Amino acid sequence: MTQTPDTTMTPAELITRFTDLLGPVGVLTGEGDTAAYCTDWRDLYHGRALAVLRPASTGELAALVRLCAEHGVPMVPQGGNTSMVGGATPDDSGREVVVCLSRMNRVRGIDPHDLTMEVEAGVTLKAAQDAAKEAGFMLPLSISSEGSAQIGGVLATNAGGNNTLRYGNARELVLGLEAVMPDGDVFHGLRRLRKDNTGYALRQLLIGSEGTLGFITTAILQLHPQPKAIEAVLCAVEDATAALNLLGLLRGRDPALVQAFEFMSGLGMDLVTSLIPGTSLPLGERAPAYVLVELATPRPDADLREYTEEILGEALEDGIITDAVIAESEGQRAGLWKLREEHAEAQRQAGASVKNDVSVPVTHVPELIERATAACTALIPGIRPAPFGHMGDGNIHFNLVQPKGMAPEAFLARSHDIMDAVAGIVKELDGSFSAEHGVGQLKPYMMPQWRGGAELAAMRHIKAALDPQNIMNPGKVLPPATQGT
Ligand code: 2HG
Ligand code: ZN
């Protein structure tokens, strides 16, 4: 039933009610305390918030959501505030509240027989990985921002990351979920069943909904055995076609061993090694492109090192790669990953950049990179393409750094031209304009063209049914109704 909200309460009265519910520690007001929550990591969006609210339990959150629903207060869920698409930033009306679950930060338990972990929304992904490791298991979800990204946001955005090609996205790793729905009702779905066909898959609807359908509060995650042997290798390649051939060679031999296959451009690597302290290229010479490969096995008896050396030797002989370095220790492995994971930070430091988080069938990755590079260069001479990412699953971050000397604002003013040019090519290659970062507030304008017709209509119906007041993360994912179906 649609509730008619009582919108007569003043901001001060609302804040008093929030404080009654959550205590002073759960309510932040005033610009000094709320500013960090009102800007995104990329510094693209700057909003204002009536308050930042920090409930400490599902019960507190449910009461808070009920209060907001009664008074028509829009809510913006925020985890580690690492969104690349402004998905967790409030608008500038000052009417919205940002809701953070960082006080709900317990790993509740690990079940070694079910191979599951129960974890609250405010736990960082890294803390969840560490807890799994300590118990002898592996939580295979791994993303560059895992030190700050929180489970709630990771699931709300169906994060992908580095190990998707072997273990799937966040969605594939969630068995159960608890969530607070937009009216304050609690969805008690913390089940740990592999088989459970009981109506619509609500948890899967909430995963990837980017906080527009409710708050994820707790999850049961699927764990895997910890690998007994891992080999991380940085390979130098001529181009993305060579990288694709390397992937073919590795997967042709034993697909189960390939845990990560990350592509990096020469420019991307130059930016990392020149801007990020403590990094340097561990290969003899600069290359046009690189691949970070990780092979892993849970079998203690496998001689993974010998296998890796053998297959790299073959790749060198066949001219697929031009050089390679194998990590000799855990420290060196971390060093190779740092070169990859600091790409986003290095690009942020290099000036304004336009990001295209796109996916195409893996076979088309070389064509995507080649055509998108040509199209963007034709659009803005001097533009610096720095594509990188999860090539093994077809997800490329086709990022473009501003031309040297161009004003950042002038470059960003061309964002849609650039995004549309890349998206046009992605479409011709049967890809997606939003692979793993979500739609947020950056890309809803693209939805009618990409997901129009029955798909967008169904999404609008679902949103209207679950959140008739449009108070859950409004302005994210779905374009305004006026912008077509
Ligand atoms: C990564 O893969 C992240 O490092 C960030 O998804 C990508 O900066 C980006 O575009
Ligand atoms: Zn990524």
UniProtKB/TrEMBL annotation:
Keywords: FAD, Flavoprotein. Pfam families: FAD-oxidase_C, FAD_binding_4. Transmembrane segments: none annotated. It comes from the Bacteria. The keyword Flavoprotein applies. The keyword Calcium does not apply. Residues 45-226 form the FAD-binding PCMH-type domain. InterPro entries: FAD-bd_oxidored_4_C, FAD-bd_PCMH, FAD-bd_PCMH-like_sf, FAD-bd_PCMH_sub1, FAD-bd_PCMH_sub2, FAD-linked_Oxase-like_C, FAD-oxidored/transferase_4, Oxid_FAD_bind_N. PANTHER family: BLL6224 PROTEIN, D-2-HYDROXYGLUTARATE DEHYDROGENASE, MITOCHONDRIAL. Belongs to the FAD-binding oxidoreductase/transferase type 4 family. This is FAD-binding oxidoreductase. The lineage of its organism: Bacteria, Pseudomonadati, Pseudomonadota, Alphaproteobacteria, Acetobacterales.
